[in-house]
Amino acid sequence: MTALRHPGPAILREGRRTSGGDQRWLKSPAAQKYGCGVVAAVDLLLYLHRHGEGQSEFFRGVPEGDIPWEVYDYCADRLRKRYLPLLPLFGLNAWVLAAGLNRYFREYRLPYRAGWGVAPGRLWAEMEAMLARDIPVILCIGVNFPFPKHKLGLYQGEDHREAGATRAHYVTVTGLDEEWMTVSSWGQVYQARREEFDRYRYRHSCGLYSNIVKVRRR
Question: Mean pLDDT of all residues in the chain?
Fold first, then answer.
């Protein structure tokens, strides 16, 4: 298993402790519907701020340890308005996501560079390389072509019980082995089977959209 060296940000809301953010709790109605990419970006930048070389004034005032949801929502709203505009009905375009992250890195003089997409045959190797460098991976489970009929299954627990399914959705990958990837989404930890993801992107989506944000150190 190749995994991040530290836990991702934990968020507190109404006595519940989540693993990363949950777009459904954001105050902005648009973000509630289409804000999964914004949440993935906040979780990435918070992780780099705390554990990498991504310390910035943007997260000044965010407490160590668990983060109150109001503070997380404030950061997500600021990031959306300044760097990651959402398109009605479409959400966050993948190239806009990468460009917004690069603008953030430039403005705060951080030693990172983001780009959208890797060659299909390099996907798993690039994900493993990022995790080995202790960088979370933003993965897009792309839209369906030609019709929205299929979703990627998500599982939980040691017995990998089916816990849901999704499409047209950004998640954060925190771990990877030969069969499974561990992902954070909607404030929970899931597993997704690599073989199922490969089948999904080749048969029901395409490699252009079912891909990752590659973040590397400059």
Answer: 95
Cα separation, 100 vs 138, whole angstroms: 14
Map out the domains of the chain as residue ranges: 8-217
Phi, psi of 89 (to 5 degrees): 75, -15
Report residue 109: phi and psi, to 5°.
Answer: 55, 50
The CA distance from 135 to 11, in Å, is: 19
Residue 163 Cα distances to 114, 153, 199, angstroms: 31, 8, 19
Cα angle 200, 204, 206; round to 5: 85
Is domain 8-217 annotated with CATH 3.90.70.10?
Answer: yes
Q: Compute the Cα dihedral for 212, 153, 176, 145 and give only its sign.
A: negative
0.85 surpassed by pTM: yes
Question: Cα-Cα-Cα-Cα dihedral of 69, 8, 31, 190, to 10°?
Answer: -110
User: By CB neighbour count within 10 A (0-12 exposed, 13-18 middle, 19+ buried), where does 195 fall?
Assistant: exposed
Averaged pLDDT for residues 78-90: 91
Angle formed at CA 107 by CA 88 and CA 75, multiple of 5 degrees: 50
